[in-house]
Predict the structure of Vacuolar protein sorting-associated protein 35.
Amino acid sequence: MMISEGIEDEDKWLTAGIAGLQQNAFYMHRALDTNNLKDALKYSAQMLSELRTSRLSPHKYYELYMRAFDELRKLEMFFREETKRGCSTIELYELVQHAGNILPRLYLLCTVGSVYIKSKEAPAKDVLKDLVEMCRGIQHPVRGLFLRSYLSQVTKDKLPDIGSEYEGDADTVMDALEFVLQNFTEMNKLWVRMQHQGPAREKEKREKERNELRDLVGKNLHVLSQIEGVDLEMYRDTVLPRVLEQVVNCKDELAQYYLMDCIIQVFPDEYHLQTLEILLSACPQLQPAVDIKTVLSRLMERLSNYAASSAEVLPEFFHVEAFAKLSNAIGQVIEAQVDMPIVGAVTLYSSLLTFSLHVHPDRLDYVDQILGACVGKLSGKGKLEDSKATKQIVTLLSAPLEKYNDIETALKLSNYPRFMEYLDDGTNKVMANVIIQSILKNKTCISTADKVEALFELIKGLIKDLDENLDDEFDEEDFNEEQSSVARLIQMLYNVDPEEMLKIICTVKKHILAGGTKRLPFTVPPLIFNSLKLVRNLQGQDESVSGDESSANPKKIFQLLNQTIEALSTVPASELALRLYLQCAEAANDCDLEPVAYEFFTQAYILYEEEISDSKAQITAIHLIIGTLQRMHIFGVENRDTLTHKATGYSAKLLKKPDQCRAVYACSHLFWVEDHENNKDGERVLFCLKRALRIANAAQQMANATRGSSGSVMLFIEILNKYLYFFEKGNSHITLDSIQGLIELITTEMQSETVTPDPTADAFFASTLRYIQFQKDKGGAVAEKYEPIKFLVSITS
């Protein structure tokens, strides 16, 4: 309630002040219009008296000041016109000093002083010195700051700078410099003094008000940076030492932070580089509460950008030993500020690392030195709980990856892995993901077992459970995405040397089998396929002539694969394991290793019998088994008969009749393998197809018994297509009579009233008949072969 009342009172005072100002401005304008200098000065002084108030906050005072400023610009124009009409500027300068109150008098003096300098009736340095000294008459912080801000504003284009019209024998750049520095010093003193005005309970409010006024002080530094005559030598010998002296001596944390930031932002990068030692020497002298990490970070950011702007400037960095100076300064600041939070230290080292990567990209020792210093700061702290600090560490560790686009470079840094023990599990995962994404993005190939070992130590946050109590926080979608990234990473591990590649595979196997059962379905398949790639590279190779047991050979790799797939039984992931066994069996077939291939098939069959109970999974599995077995050429008669007999037996035992039928007619391909004459048994093909027909017929009878309709004829049409396939391939046991009989059966069934209408089946049958007709139309031997087949229905196109 008291705050709102204070604001209302302030608004009333501001309104009253504006009203008084406008009223006197009105009379001043009337005097100006009639060229009445005496009244113009009288009313302008009364108008400016409104700025003597102490009741307004800086924000409200600024509003009043800007209105007065606009009126003073008009008054200045009037003074210029007066001098043109013959009025002496010196007389004007003396006349305004008769104003009754000091504040209006000084505003008028600054206004006339601007005209005085422009008239060149006196040396600019004398007028400037006079004005800056007289402004000391106002020691109230707010009023003094705005007065000196006005002085700076009206004189900034009238300084005796190089190339300026105000430069002369008596006026030099040093005079301009002295004026701005003196004004800056006095303004900074007023600004710092504000904190001591008023009761202690309002300190927070005063600090907020001071913060609002900081730009008034900072504008002086901007003016300094715009003086053309301030070269590097003058900046190093005069400007920077004088400004830093004021910064250090004021002992005010707000002023020190803001002014250091101003110095960094307004002066040129090359000046900072050449005066780095002077600038950095001030840092340890600042108040402990100053946010020095941000100041130094911004300095290093500017220097990094400067280094990145052109390769031509890099020798300057080497010449001044910028890295050593920055590194020493950061060490001194961290040592001096014993209470600096971890995030502050990490931020400083992160900025230094960015600087080093820009300026010295070839100096890995510098990178490792920075990482080592940062790890030293973390030692003894345990797992970091500050999220800001861990975020900065991720930024720090990501910088080398982004610069070099090569994880192998990061693996050379001895201090890089040491950070992982200080990161919580969540951040470990984030960092691991950053590393993996870097590898995938840059398609980096990790080519030695030692590097893989080091890499997997870095990304252990994703390949093993660091905390056993994560079930409550488990997010399946995130987990799946993370493990998919790990799977893609495993595919990036490769070496052309079989021996080294086998070592890589063994290293990966060791890590992923220790990673917990949840991860195995994601990480085992890429390892298996990477191993099979190696097997195919070794295809046809006999066991090592040297007999060295460590030598990479297909048999040894297959043993390793068998052990790896067995681990999936703990998940369980029987369907995935079955697929992988079949893949390995096919690879063993290509290597002419019959016992190995038979063993993989045996394992697949055991899984099918003991683990896969879901009917849909059984259908998929049996078709995978049939498809793989059909491509196998290595098996002898006995082994092949055993495996095909099992496959047909599984097919006939599926739960649903249609599934049985399709699996059984698929088994017909096991007895007729193209390009393998010893695997062509037409009689057994016919047996499978007849058995499929019986099952299809039984399916129709069951449908008729349960639903009152005989169901679709789709199965018969599918079997007809199988008959046509083997007939075309030259199987003598598939006769025209059997094909003709099937066509007649399907035609009759489709015309029966008990058959359920099925547009898909109709279209399929019509397409099949069109194919037969197409073969007839070919002419020659093919046409003769198909000619006896008759259609009982017309073929629609």
